[in-house]
Amino acid sequence: MIDSSKKNPFKVDFTDTGIATNFVQSSKIIIFGQIIKAIATIFSTAFLARILSAEDFGIIAICTSVTAILARLKDGGLSTAVIQTQSISIQEASNIFWINAAIGFSLMFFCVLISPSMAFMYSEPKLASVLIFLSTAYIFGGFGVQFDALLRRRLDYTLIMIIEILTVTFAIIIACYMALTGFGYWALVALSILPVAGHLTLAAYASKWRPLFYSRKTNILYLLKFGGISLFASILATLTVSLVALVVGLIDGINGAGIYSRAIMIVGIFSAMFLIPISHLTQSSLSRFHGKSSKDSFDRLALSALQAISIMAILTCMIFILFSDLLATIILGEGWTEVGSLIKLLAPIAIVEPVIYLLACQLTAKGMPDIVLKLRIIDFIVVSFLIAMSFSFGIIPMIITYATGSACLRLPLFIFISFQRLNLDFKKLISCFLFPLFCAFLVTSVFLTFQNIVESYNGFIWQIFFLLLAFSLYGLLLLFNSQIRIWIFGLLRANNKLI
Predict the structure, then answer these.
(1) What's the rounded mean pLDDT across residues 15-28?
(2) Separation of alpha carbons 272 and 351, rounded Å
(3) Which of 37, 182, 201, 307 is the most buried (most CB within 10 A)?
């Protein structure tokens, strides 16, 4: 299935059938691995939320809203170029490695410079030291990104998942111990840094590749151009997501930012655990299709990935609308009552962000990072407009406007332009997206209609029963669509012909 040269570990060659088979197998590995990570993450979130305060989470939320934007700079978009390009030499890869390392050190230095300004802006001295410590992750990330890109280029997602499970588990154990022993928000700092450092160590060992010294004779301008466009698109995407958190912090202070961060964390936890990794797999797989002869294979895989992401994202949104208070109580405990209502308001984001992210990955795999950049610019303008026209009315109206506008403006616009550029059949959108959305609407309507009956059974066991009932009804309704039914049964049989 794969021919990898010992002299050049970046040289890979898949057949179309091999890509399809690998996609199905890797999807199952990702789902299994992410279930383990999800359990560990939910446990750590529940544990830490019962020990640490909203202020502790608020300090980290404000710092990470800045570091998350800068984190997109850690590889200059070059990891995307490495995964996407058809061929790359060892020296080209080595040059990119040293550029990434230099970017990592530069980002850390920049964070050190702006840390006093952050502390002054929010009138919180703790922000300065936290931001400096969090910025050390850029060094680990800068050195590690090329090793990770090599594994993704090989489509070696089994190794990637093992690395992620080990590093996250280790970080959670250390963070929980620190929280128990009174380190406060420093436990959350460790939880952010340790997975990046661990990933560097294990990925470097697993990749079996070591960089050469930098060579000025090797030209990598074509990679820098592709990576630069992808980089700006990625920065805009992160800034778009972080914008609301930054405004909430400015309006409602550290405590308000902490509450919002817990709500958006729960809304995005399923996406981060399952949907985004599958999007990365989709991009890596689609990048291996070359030439017009592979167009049908590309289209089938792109639509299959969209169908999988849409079905899961819409289910997640439905659960958040119906059982937001239950989820907030299970994950965070009794002391976070305000989070439940925010989860319900932010529920549409559980659909919008994963689908947008997947389409951006597919466009990049098609060699259209410029289109992704244009879409991200439009997306950022739309979100900025939604926030600007609503923030003066308060936090809740702003969040409602942001979530509703994302579902009604951002998502349709992104889907329409992406389908045009990818030359995908708009009729396929019915089974991929619209029918699952209709099924979720029916289930939600039924539960809201009989809300009084559901609420009368307010015990924990009854709430779990109704959650499972909603999940089952949604799944049964999906089976009424013949295309989805064939796709699901084919996936369960690991039939690569379904894509």
Answers:
(1) 67
(2) 12
(3) 307
Report the alpha-carbon distance of residue 134 to residue 121 in Å, rounded: 18
- Answer yes or no: are the C-beta atoms of 169 and 38 closer than 8 Å: no
**Among candidate residues 130, 78, 65, the one with its CA nearest the CA of residue 104:** 78
| Mean pLDDT to the nearest integer, 457-462 | 70
Residue 405 has pLDDT above 90, yes or no: yes
Residue type, 342: L
What percent of the chain has a predicted confidence (pLDDT) above 70? 89
Confidence check: pLDDT of 6 > 60: no
What pLDDT sits at residue 3?
38
Residues 6+ apart with CB under 8 A from 44: 172, 175, 176, 191
Q: Write the pLDDT tens digit of every residue in 415-446.
A: 999 989 888 877 777 777 889 999 999 999 98
Pick the more confident residue, 453 or 197: 197
Rounded-to-integer distance, Cα 133 and Cα 93, Å: 29
Question: First vs last Cα of the chain: how many Å apart?
Answer: 17
Amino acid at 269: I
pLDDT of residue 488 exceeding 80, the answer is: no
Looking at residue 29, its amino acid is I
Instruction: Spell out the long-range contacts of 111-117 with Cβ–Cβ below 8 A and sequence spacing 24 or more.
Output: 111/66, 111/67, 111/70, 111/135, 111/138, 114/66
Whether 499 shows a pLDDT value over 70: the answer reads: no
pLDDT, tens only, 156-179: 888 888 999 999 999 999 999 999
